[in-house]
Amino acid sequence: MPPKPFPYPLGVGIDICHIPRIRRLITKDNGKYLDQFARRIFNSYEWEHFQVKLEDAKNASHKDYMDGIAQWLAGRFAAKEAAFKAVSSRRLRFHDIIICGSNALSSKSDNVRMSRAPCALICSPLDRSSSSPKKKSLSVSSSEGIRGTEEDNGSVGFMREKGVEEMEDYEIAQLSISHDGDYATAVVIAVNDASKA
After folding, report:
1. Which of 18, 43, 105, 114 is the right S-S partner for 95, CB 3.0 to 4.6 Å?
2. In this structure, are residues 163 and 155 in contact, taking their beta carbons and an 8 Å threshold?
3. pLDDT (mean) for 36-40
4. Counting Cβ atoms within 10 Å, is residue 140 exposed (0-12), middle (13-18) or buried (19+)?
5. In angstroms, what CA-CA distances link 88 with 4, 185, 193?
6. Surface-to-core class of residue 179, CB atoms within 10 Å of its CB (0-12 exposed, 13-18 middle, 19+ buried)
């Protein structure tokens, strides 16, 4: 008789990234590849966050600036790779996963104090009638350091109240990112129900 299967439809993914490798890549040819690498792994919402982080980091010395950006990018890269592994039954791309602070998921009306720890939003499985995931219009909160629109009015919410239903095709996954010396690691726990994929 075979052993009983794991009783929950959860997947765990882990990844490790060598920070000096990312630093070499983004500083190659005087930073020519920084933009290319960031556009490859970030969707448009994360790209906005990255631009703000990059602008803020330019106030530091060149060495500190590049080291900090490389460390941050390595953590985000590891997080997305870990998410791929956690939901391995899906055909995801880098742009189907959003790494944001968990406080960005609450709205002004929420009475729950959420952590600034990162979490992953993972695009739900493919629509069977389509060959690619549905694209949603997401609004990123200014609490994450991203410049919101005037309509946001400083809202803590990841989406404006009128757009909450647009989040229905994303699932929240638990995420932990750590840095130690030359390495960034990430662990993701997510729903990985193969019957839905």
Report:
1. 43
2. no
3. 93
4. buried
5. 21, 18, 10
6. middle
